[in-house]
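Annex B. Sample input.
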Amino acid sequence: MAKEKKEIDLVERPIEAVEETFSKAETLFHTYQKQITYVAGALVAVVALTWGYQEFIVKPAEEEAQLALYPAQDVFAQDSLNLALNGNAEFMGFVEIADEYSNTKAGNLANYYAGLCYLGLGQAEEAIDYLEEFDGDGTFLDIVATGAIGDAFADLKQPKESEEYYARAASFEANDFLTPFFLSKAALAAELNSDLESALKYMKRIKADFPNSAQGANADALIAFYEAKLAAK
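Annex B, continued. Sample output.
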């Protein structure tokens, strides 16, 4: 009955009910106005700091890093790996750029280039370190970087690890060139690791999904070879 009476009062006295509600809200605001002001101020400060950081720190650093990257990329394209890696008195190398501009996209890309340089120079462990720092966000470069880590482990005579990274490179969104390329590398690494079942699996996928690729041309022969080896066990 009390609930029913309250509902009736609200219908019969709508203005009084609204005024009472506003009065309570006003009292609540005055009670907590200092806290509300602090919270609002903190939110404004966070927005301002974020905008300021992006506008006055991130953007200039990104532009500066991009400019630093160009000369190193140029000598890299000319196969001057050591110079691209370490730079000289005139420009920064990929290692320094990756360190100096670690929070920029250009600095991230420098990790990729540094890893490839180290790989080309036969320094597999350093190559792995830098390539693992690179975040390709699932792009074409991510596939290449992942496969390059597989190459580095192959150089270190670690076929199990190299197979893992080749298979991972082949697991990205299918690419008619790179996917069968890394599947064939995974098959070879698996064979070197005496894992013929996995090697057969990789070759069968090439035959099924990429029959017209360069690796697909040899798929039947390698599948027959692996099946014969497994049958002889």
